[in-house]
Amino acid sequence: MKWQGRLKISIYILLIGSLLACGSQKEITENQRLGLERAVTTPAFKIQMQWAYPLSNTASQYLNNLQPGVRANGNRIYIDDGSNYVQIQNDSVFVDLPYFGTRQISGGMPGNVGVQIKEALKDWELRPEKKANQRSIRIATKHKGEYYDLSIHLFAEGKATLVVSTSQRQSIRYEGRWSEGLED
Prior knowledge:
Structural class: alpha+beta
Radius of gyration: 21 Å
Number of strands: 10
Largest sheet: 10 strands, antiparallel
Distance between the termini: 68 Å
Number of helices: 3
């Protein structure tokens, strides 16, 4: 008989948890959906990055221990200082992001070790999505001898994710907020 009482309590807890999870999702407006469509079909948008997620925990732990003021917790690094972005504008892609991770090919990296790209938008693919409130874009480009594969996910409510894979470094993921149109 005790197991029946425990079973009822477990069912109630699961039911309440399910109801709370369903009710917490924010409704997407028609203007947000239309803005997303314009941004990816024009294409003209800017993503202001807020967080970096290095593949190896070693990179973020190193920063957490050595640089005062850097907010890192072992698997993500706060980078929202206004200068970290991806922008698609006038058939070009502009990227200026810090990089935390391991270089896969030996040799030094002259100058800035971040991800910096200023190239024509040649290899662009808008990937189909099952959900109406998100779009996926893949951009392949080369800059200063390094090949980049940018996988961008834009969400109608304004969130964005980016995964950068390169020919010379470990992959890294970023999160931020996107805005439609051209901004400086």
